[in-house]
Specification:
Elements: E1 2-6, H1 9-21, E2 27-32, H2 39-49, E3 64-68, E4 74-79, E5 101-105, E6 119-126, E7 129-136, H3 139-147
Parallel strand pairs: 2-5, 2-6, 4-5
Antiparallel strand pairs: 1-7, 3-4, 6-7
Keywords: ATP-binding, Cytoplasm, Magnesium, Metal-binding, Nucleotide-binding, tRNA processing
Protein name: tRNA threonylcarbamoyladenosine biosynthesis protein TsaE
Family: Belongs to the TsaE family.
Length: 148
């Protein structure tokens, strides 16, 4: 487990870059935190560090945004805040093997309908910045966390 204080947007960007630099070939990240805790900001920083250009939208209303990565793979950014039942994920056309990176906000709303996390990141407002707690949830997550 790793605890960090992210004092500003630059620190969040730096964490996204560190995560991107050590990302395993296939990874699932579950992002936890209250509204405004920085989940979308961290996801955006990670995607940008992986070579996503152009606008990176928060999937608050679309539920999922798909992004081509510089290495030719695809990342999915999900925001499940608005789903009422895990069965709603069936209508999103999500195939576990199709994306090399899953960034999932509000994963607790999906129950067992999501692939298990490799890395869990809990974000919280901490003074003028944010606190981040990173926890490995799989062997790949342990290797990833140790590398950053």
């Amino acid at each position: 487990m790793m605890h960090l204080h992210l004092q500003d947007a630059a620190a969040t960007d730096a964490l996204g870059q560190r995560l991107a630099a050590q990302r395993p070939a296939h990874a699932v990240v579950h992002l936890y935190g209250d509204l405004g805790a920085g989940k979308s900001t961290l996801a955006r920083a990670l995607l940008r560090a992986l070579g996503v250009t152009g606008t990176i939208r928060s999937p608050t209303y679309t539920l999922v945004e798909r992004y081509p990565l510089a290495d030719g793979s695809e990342a999915w950014h999900l925001d499940l805040y608005r789903i009422g039942d895990p069965g709603e994920l069936d209508f999103l056309g999500l195939d576990e093997g199709a994306a090399s990176l899953w960034l999932v906000e509000w994963p607790q709303r999906a129950g067992a309908a999501l692939p298990p996390a490799d890395l869990r990141i809990d974000l919280a407002i901490d003074g003028h910045g944010r606190s981040a707690q990173l926890s490995a949830c799989s062997q790949a997550g342990k290797v990833w966390l140790a590398a950053i």
